[in-house]
Amino acid sequence: MEFRYLPMTEQDKKDMLSTIGVQTTDELFADIPESIRFKGDLNIKPPANEYTLTKELTDLSQQNINTKSHTSFLGAGVYDHYIPSIVNHVISRSEFYTAYTPYQPEISQGELQAIFEFQTMICELTGMDVSNSSMYDGGTALAEAVNVSAGHTKKKKVLVSKAIHPESMAVIHSYVKGPGLEIVEIDHVNGVTDLEQLERELDENTASVVIQYPNFFGQVERLDRVREIVDQEKKAMLIASSNPLALGYITPPGEFGADIVVGDAQVFGIPAQFGGPHCGYFATTKKLMRKVPGRLVGQTNDEQGRRGFVLTLQAREQHIRRDKATSNICSNQALNALASSVAMSSLGKQGLKKMAWMNLQKTHYMKKQLENAGFELAFRGAFFNEIVLKLDEDVELVNQELLRQGFIGGYDLHRDFSDLKGHMLVAVTEIRTKKEIDQFVKEVGDICG
Amino acid sequence: MANQDFPLIFELSQESRTGYSLPEFDVPETNIDEQLGDAFVRKSEPDLPEVSELQIMRHYTALSTRNHGVDSGFYPLGSCTMKYNPKMNEDVARLTGFSHIHPLQPEGTVQGALSLMFDLQETLAEITGMDTVTLQPAAGAHGEWTGLMMIRAFHEGNGDFNRTKVIVPDSAHGTNPASATVAGFEAVTVKSDDRGLVDLEDLKRVVDEQTAALMLTNPNTLGLFEENIEEMASIIHEAGGKLYYDGANLNAILGYARPGDMGFDVVHLNLHKTFTGPHGGGGPGSGPVGVTAEFEPFLPKPILIKRNEEFVFDYDRPKSIGRVKPYYGNFGINVRAYTYIRTMGAEGLKKVSEYAVLNANYMMRRLQQEYDLPFEQHCKHEFVLSGKRQKKLGVRTLDIAKRLLDFGYHPPTIYFPINVEEAIMAEPTETESKETLDAFVDAMLQISQEAKDDPEKVQEAPHTTIVSRMDETKAARKPVLRYLKEE
Fold first, then answer.
1. Does residue A225 fall inside a structural domain?
2. Does the keyword Oxidoreductase apply (chain B) (predicted)?
3. Are residues A382 and A302 part of one domain?
4. Is residue B477 included in any domain, yes or no?
5. In Å, how far is A343's CA from the nearest CA of chain B?
6. Rounded to 5 degrees, what angle do the CA atoms B273, B276, B280 make?
7. Domain check: are A121 and A262 in the same one?
8. Is B362–A92 a contact, with Cβ atoms under 8 angstroms apart?
9. What's the pLDDT at A318?
10. Which residue range(s) make up the domain with B277?
């Protein structure tokens, strides 16, 4: 069998072995004790040629119903948006995707500058002073934010709204086991965080309050009132998790005095790809700059005074601080941050606002059409691009029928919320057309009628 | 911005220029501001660039030329396994049926994706000699933390709450002690001996009834195989601790040895290293974790199982450590790794390690003429030199690294591992040709000669890059972490 990724010829091998001073490559493995040496062949599939394997995997991929074959109203944290062609062309530049972390600034200015631009864009969107170069995803970014708040305030109690993404909630619960924090979940009332309960639970042991804005149900939380409550405890911090696209139209958390804003930039140029890789972001205030997990790129200049960029404030990070580090993150999502930067550059100041506005408008249209068809929405508050539809039927069964009609239906909230049986979370993005929305409403009507 | 500076995309911006093409707005307009309420309508737009599509393309194309990747040239960055990233993998990962599927679609609609994940799990279990694998962790460090949380849950499940310490060799990656801390353990260091291996006497000294685990890479970060691994395993196991394998260096032993057979209980892999997931300028990676059967109940949930010929997620996992990530891991990277493994098969993977080790030993022996080699034995996939001979001439390892830039190379990892003075850690990988290795060695030998004849040439390097050495002190003292328009 030939292997196109392995360039050595038999002659090369012979020459190299001779330089090393051994007869066979096996001698180089002599330090592996006989007793643990693997004998025989790994029991995995045999090597495949490029054509055959491509065909096999293409066939396999076609077994998946996808958001191109079907019209999707499924969101719940991952969204089907317009992705400019240019994004894939840029991230396919192999100088970007075959590089690693830019440790050598002289030959990594491209990546470093791209990250610096990403950091700037995230700051602009969130209204914060500082952004890092990316996190794994929105969920882990949120969990890291919780740990940062506890480390900074030296307090152990965190109040987390139940109206955040349930999978982010699960990740938070896993992450806080290390530092041993106490999570108090705050109920939702009418689709938003119960502020009275929040106020009752807030005390001098509270490190932070975690709110998703817009929340998992699409509702725009009253961050202004949350901030007032958080302010009752001098040290307590406000952490907001935000869909950054929404911030193109709604007031960013930074303007409400959030201390940390996190989220996922998947909405900008990154396909759903079954849940990952996406692109977490982490933004905060100047005050907390030295507590930020992960890589930060800073501006400086070279010996000739030319502007340039470097990884900076590295004393925060695991490779310097080792067991004193507060986060262990090393690899991040740099290439996806680049994809998001390109998408944000394409949209620009006006386009991003317009895209956010279209999400709002089209979701409003969906709401009206559903109401006109006699459906009831669960919540009455302001929303971004998701609404909660109250059905008398089992959402899973409705979705099965919708699938037959060419739709990927909304998210079954009963999976995570026992009080929301028969509730479907419906997402409407800018790419959905009036016709698709009308058709969806009709189909749901037919199924539930 | 000075004339000599390369522009930021913000500096190309002109009001009202557009680079987008949004879908049609085809629904009746609603007064959404009224519904949101004044306080929640953003008053000023985020100051994003306003540029045309060509401007964006030129900007990022120019940036890409200011960046060095594996496709640009040799990249022997130790511990990072900078091997070739096959283009086919990129195409497969972008297939619509893989890239445009939503993680919350009904399982019945994503059987193709689930079957790939299942097969990858089984394949990685076979390669590592473990019983079962989770694909959920997003990267190596994330996998380390996941594995340690499982070890913690295991001990606690036995009613053993006193195992608070994780032993880490002094040569370990920084993520190891950091992961231990983040998982709520105390990191304890075990020393290396004069052969660069874990000092067994010191290990016996630090191990006790509080030991939760020993974290180890094998081969270790010096590129040396821990020959006493079985004895180390029994020291740890007899004390009631567990053995954790950092898979960063798996590229050395594919088909030659398996962590499971060495006595490891928990293993993470870096699919972006050994299995060609591209490094992406820092990520995304993928860090699956393999475990022995006794850890299976603690795996992150959900786990992927096959039930009546259908792949489904099982959430009913009462002992699970919970979720470590939303959804099911970095699927896109897992597709790339799967494509690679299928391309190579058992035969190809074994050759990968054979050539990775051959290449490293060849380079090491040639470089040994001029550079100090702290450990004389054969290395595995990487090796560590010391620049202390050159340091005596006033040329530091940093200078050598910078001089290599003039030859078009990405330098090896430097000043790591921390237990070797002026360390130079090189990992050629198996995808490099002999010609490339020879040319790199020749450059290193030339630099060593320059250190003797013309040290300033090395000290002042690089001479040919688009920028020279950066003022890192200034960057850290007065951090500028974002662009602000000049007033």
1. yes
2. yes
3. no
4. no
5. 9
6. 80
7. yes
8. no
9. 80
10. 88-343
